[in-house]
Design brief:
This protein has about 400 residues and is α+β, with helices and mostly antiparallel strands. It contains 16 helices and six strands. It has a six-stranded mixed β-sheet with strand order 2-3-1-4-5-6, sandwiched between helices. The C terminus is likely disordered.
Length: about 400
């Protein structure tokens, strides 16, 4: 029971990247096929509306017949939008989903007979499956609630006519059916989590970092943020000396330490091989202190083995409205990666800070503090240099924190 509640809570709170899913489908050349399928499936609603008007058992009052003709027209336009237009944006997709929900419920309410209402319930279920694949849990719950309310609305005439059994069957059947889309989405969420995770360390993979950072940093409130690129020093020597199983153990223990030291809501990933990345929602100065804690945590012995790390740290530039194709996450990763390799070239077990803005091309390097072995980090000088760099905004300050240990 506790596990089920935790799973449900994680599912409810999960961020969902609509654009990522669309691009994944498009990358497999399936987007056009899916768009056509949605458009053709939607033709059922206007056809049902027209057949209801023309049927001898259809509505007899003029108002209902006019409304059904109008709904048929809306349905045709809806299908044309899918068949002819481009794949909709997230907001347009939600709008089209809402129009479909309301139109189907209205057609079922205006058309007498069990058959139309049964088909309408099935179509609402299909819309729920679409929402489960492309939209967030909250949007899916909203669509599910609408489907249940529609079933109650369509069952009301049956209650008034004394056919309580049929009314209850309709409501209970819909209640059972609408559990399918959330169940599918939860399963999909678990599979996506495995797909976006590194199987050894259970950290996010590089693809997972791309996925969750795209969601996080689409919101301006996510800034400031900083990126750390972490590479284990002389990791090949661990494999050569102790074997690859010991190397795997070092990677797993390092991942555990990164989880422990990283601030809450950080994006922690294994970038590849013995390289890790952490994105923190902190300013550069605050992230610098975290980076040094990360360096110290990694340097703690693992049995007979001692591993150190070279860390590059860079600020996340805010999105540029004039250049929407510029990905701030990739810019920061490239900057931090460059700083990390500089730290490695200087002996490792160090943090190299790089302050890079998208418009700056002038490079400058300043050593702010050298820390004797076992000494404390002097963050005052670092903060002063960061402040000066931010004021000038015409230079890139790369700051080495920590006295690197030379290879043995």
């Amino acid at each position: 029971m506790v596990v089920g509640l935790r799973l449900f809570r994680e599912w409810w709170r999960e961020d969902f990247d609509y654009q990522w899913v669309v691009e994944a489908i498009a990358a497999r050349s399936a987007l056009g096929l899916l768009k056509t399928a949605v458009g053709l499936c939607g033709l059922a609603a206007p056809i049902i509306a027209v057949l209801s008007v023309l049927s001898p058992t259809g509505p007899t009052d003029s108002a209902s017949r006019v409304l059904l003709w109008l709904l048929a027209g809306v349905g045709v336009l809806w299908c044309a939008r899918w068949l002819v237009g481009p794949w909709p944006t997230e907001r347009a997709s939600l709008l089209l989903t809402g129009i479909a929900d309301v139109s189907i419920t209205a057609v079922c309410a205006l058309s007498p007979g069990y058959v139309v209402r049964a088909v309408g319930m099935m179509m609402l279920l299909i819309i729920g499956i679409y929402v489960s694949a492309l939209h967030s849990p909250k949007m899916l719950v909203g669509q599910t609630v609408w489907s249940l309310l529609s079933a109650c609305l369509l069952a009301a005439p049956l209650f008034r006519g004394g056919d309580t059994t049929s009314a209850l069957i309709m409501i209970l059947g819909m209640a059972a059916a609408v559990m399918v889309p959330p169940g599918l989405q939860i399963c999909y969420s678990l599979l996506r989590g495995d797909m976006l995770s590194d199987p050894l360390t259970r950290l996010l993979s590089r693809r997972g970092l791309d996925y969750y950072s795209a969601i996080r940093f689409a919101r301006p409130a996510s800034f400031p943020a900083s990126v750390m690129m972490i590479d284990l020093d002389r990791f090949k020597a661990i494999n050569d000396t102790y074997g690859h199983c010991a190397g795997d153990e070092v990677l797993v223990r390092t991942a555990d330490r990164l989880r422990r030291v990283a601030p809450p809501k950080s994006i922690v990933s294994r970038f590849g091989g013995e390289e890790f990345a952490i994105i923190v929602g902190l300013s550069l100065a605050a992230a610098l202190e975290v980076a040094d804690r990360v360096r110290g945590a990694i340097a703690e012995p693992i049995g007979p083995m001692t591993v150190t790390a070279s860390i590059g740290l860079a600020p996340m530039p805010a999105p540029d409205a004039q250049n929407p194709t510029c990905d701030p996450v990739r810019v920061a990763i490239a900057s931090a990666d460059e700083a990390m390799y500089r730290a490695k070239q200087q002996g490792g077990n160090a943090v190299l800070l790089s302050d890079i803005t998208a418009s700056e091309t002038l490079h400058a390097r300043t050593t702010v503090t050298a820390r004797p072995e076992g000494g404390a980090v002097s963050s005052k000088a670092v903060r002063s240099e960061i402040s000066a760099a931010e004021d000038r905004r015409s230079k890139i300050a790369r700051t080495l924190v920590g006295s690197p240990r030379r290879p043995r």
